[in-house]
Amino acid sequence: MPNEDLLRKQGEEQFHFLADFIPQLVWFTDPTGYHTFFNKRWIDFTGYTLADSVGPDMWNNLLHPDDQERARRVWGHSLATGEFYEIEYRFKGKDGAYRWFLGQASPQYDEQGNIRQWFGTCTDIEEQKQTELQLRQREQELERAYADLEVKVTFRNLELEREVHELRQRLAE
Question: 158: burial class by Cβ within 10 Å (0-12, 13-18, 19+)?
Answer without folding.
Answer: exposed
